[in-house]
Design goal:
Layout: H1 2-21, E1 27-28, E2 38-44, E3 52-59, H2 69-74, E4 80-85, E5 92-97, E6 102-111, E7 124-126, H3 140-143, E8 144-147, E9 151-157, E10 159-162, E11 167-170
Parallel strand pairs: 1-5, 2-9
Antiparallel strand pairs: 2-5, 3-4, 3-6, 6-7, 6-8, 10-11
């Protein structure tokens, strides 16, 4: 008798629990998504699930944004990089630690061919500001993230080369 009353109750709870089951499992420096200080980047609008994903952390200055990692590290400046295999299904959430609270610039890239070198014609890129990249490199102002003591969440829309004249923009636009 108890069993019959319990079934409708459990059936009513299932739709409420579904979002929890579909929650994204973070990849990268996953401790950064729990303890902080760190950045939790939700990646949306990916063209496909090929290759690997990269999230890079730069100093929040014009002269250092997108500079070579060897130069930044040799000068004692902030630089971090997280590489992960592209998840086959589900939401994509990448985590990266920051050394301390403050302002940083981040860049996401989708290395579709797996060659660890940005291929302008096939690979994707994005920054948290989600402005269309067009035919120029990302602007520092669009890549900035202010991080506190905890975890800061940003949404990055992946952009790929398409259209005529070719320019970077979100898929479908």
């Amino acid at each position: 008798m108890v069993r019959c009353r319990l079934i409708p109750f459990v059936a009513a709870l299932l739709p409420l629990l579904a979002p929890l089951a579909a929650a994204a499992q973070p990849v990268g420096e996953t401790d950064a998504c729990v303890n902080g200080p760190g950045i939790r980047a939700e990646i949306v609008g990916m063209k496909d699930r090929q290759g690997s994903l990269k999230l890079e952390l730069f100093p929040a200055t014009e002269q250092d944004f997108l500079r070579d990692d060897h130069d930044l590290l040799a000068e004692g400046k902030v630089f971090r990089r997280v590489w992960v295999a592209t998840p086959h299904t589900g939401p994509v959430v990448m985590c990266i630690r920051v050394p301390h609270p403050g302002s940083y610039a981040i860049l996401f890239t989708h290395d579709r061919d797996g060659k660890n070198k940005f291929n302008f014609w096939t690979d994707g890129a994005g920054v948290p500001g989600n402005q269309k990249l067009g035919r120029s490199r990302p602007k520092l102002a669009n890549a900035l993230v202010n991080v506190g003591n905890g975890v800061t969440t940003v949404v990055i829309r992946a952009q790929y080369l398409h259209g005529f004249p070719p320019a970077f923009g979100p898929v479908g636009e």
